[in-house]
Amino acid sequence: MKKLALLLIGLLLVPALFLTSCDRGDDLDDNGSVATPAFTLLKEYMTQNNLDIGNVLTNTNNQKFVVGAPAAADLQTFLDTYYIMDIRSNADFLNAHIEGANNVAFSDILTTAATTSKPILVVCYTGQTACYATALLRLYGYPSTRSLKWGMSGWNALTAGPWNGKIGSKLADGHNNWTHQGAPATLVFDNPTISTTLTDGEAILKQRVEALVAAGFGSVTVSGSDVLNNPSQYFINNYFSEADYSGFGHINGAYRILPLTLGDDSYLGLDPDPNAKVVTYCYTGQTSAVMTACLRVLGYDAYTMTFGMNGIFNTNPSWKTNQWGGDSNPKNLPVITN
Length: 338
Known about the structure:
- One of its GO terms (molecular function) is transferase activity.
- The chain is α/β, with parallel strands linked by helices.
- It has two domains: 38-165, 3-Layer(aba) Sandwich (Oxidized Rhodanese, domain 1), CATH 3.40.250.10; 178-314, Rhodanese-like domain (Oxidized Rhodanese, domain 1).
- The chain is built from 13 helices and eleven strands.
- The chain has a five-stranded parallel beta sheet, with helices on both faces. It has a four-stranded parallel beta sheet with strand order 7-11-10-8. It has a two-stranded antiparallel ribbon with strand order 6-9.
- The model is unreliable at 1-26 (pLDDT under 50).
């Protein structure tokens, strides 16, 4: 009878132990040892090879991810420096483009990048899609890649339509979800989970970048009006300076996790839930596009708020820099037209 009782206890414990092991998420390698999680492999590779988020924003040569349109006197040097990759539609490219620019589909940016030894300049309509592409190219092995700030909107008044049509909004002015309160306390979460059969950090990084390039930019954007009207549906991270966070005001509930890097574990302030909808917003939608590319590579359900602060409160009296129509306007640089 005693032996039967022990057998029954053993049978009950086996599935319990099995479920506990599964819950830990411990996969075994070919030798039967616990495998290193894919995220850890990716994190280690990125931090050891100058590919942390901070290095994507500003590379080891101190070059930011964006560069403004040049002064007229510096135009030729600017054109000679870069391989210009214009990722707009072919129709808009033919209508007006920068001299020497190459019209490249977003899905082809990685294969095209491999054909040049020059630093790459990515050009789009407003700078947002180009910044997303620039981040992915930097992560893939092209650290000198930059995007044209403000896109073609900043190059010539003839091509400024995309930005001119998105400013002047007072969506946030007087809105119930716009506040000057302090930031909520930063929480600490677990690492994201990355599903892959690869066991090498570099290979995991390239696989994830390639998948994001294939998916395109449109699926990672959210409108400012939706975030403003429904903040509880997002995990919001504001990318303003501390002074602007309080001076401009911000969307209610927005965290301010800045800087956000792997090396100091500040990324753990973001919710890794696959359905968390981590949305970053900045002044122009350009920095947030870079952050979104990096966070998606790392396994977050990340989004960029299009047009940033300019899209929801361009008339805010606290503006000093990065205000379209204020300190930033289109230049009068030449374009090739057909």
